[in-house]
Every structure is written in C-alpha cells, then in structure tokens.
Amino acid sequence: MAETEQKTKKPAAKKPVDLTKLSIEELFEGLNQTIQKMDDSSVSLEETFQLYELGMKAVKEAGSRIDEVEKKIRILGGEEDV
C-alpha cells in the first residue's frame, strides 16, 4: 500500500522563478522549454495549465522589457513621441 501512496503523490513544487531577474534571452529560452513540456503527452492537464500560466507571465514580462528597450532606442535616436 505504501508503494501505491508513493505513486499518487505529486512531485515537490518547484521554487517560483522571479521573472524580473531574468534576461530577455533567458525568458525566451524558458518559453521554449515551457512549450516543449506542454507538447509532452505525459504531462497532465493540470500541469499543462500551470505551464501555460507561467508561459503567459513570461510573455508579459518579455513584452515589457522589449517596450523598455524600444523606448530607450527612440530616446537615443532623437524621436520625440516617446
């Protein structure tokens, strides 16, 4: 019976990643890894939803960072509509 209980236990939750501390490149690499995990047929539906949520947070963070870089480029380029 202990063996059955052990099989049904969920894996230990990973420590949440602070997306704000990752570089844009690291965010995109993480997104690629998340997509690969979601494509794995052995991943449960619940885990797929968690991966989707993490991926969307990473997309939002990457978008914010890209917007910041774009603003800096516009300022350096002398554009006034920043």
Count of helix runs: 3
- Helices and strands, in order, run as HHH
- Average pLDDT taken over every residue: 85
Note the beta-strand portion: under 5%
Structural class: mainly alpha
Could you list the spans in which at least 5 consecutive residues all have pLDDT below 50?
Answer: 1-12
Count the strands? 0
**Count of separate structural domains:** 1
Q: Biggest sheet, in brief?
A: none
What sort of overall outline do the alpha carbons produce when their principal axes are compared? elongated
Radius of gyration: 19 Å
**How much helical structure, as a percent, in the residues?**
55-70%
Enzyme class: hydrolase
Keywords: Cytoplasm, Exonuclease, Hydrolase, Nuclease
Pfam family, one: Exonuc_VII_S
EC number: 3.1.11.6
Give keywords.
single chain, 82 residues, mainly alpha, elongated, disordered N terminus
Structural account:
- The chain has helices spanning 2-8, 24-39, 45-76.
- The protein has one domain (23-82).
- 67% of the residues lie in helices and 0% in strands.
- With 82 residues, it is mainly α.
- It is an enzyme of class 3 (hydrolase).
- It comes from [Clostridium] aminophilum.
- GO terms for molecular function: exodeoxyribonuclease VII activity.
Structure at a glance:
The chain has one domain. 67% of the residues lie in helices and 0% in strands.
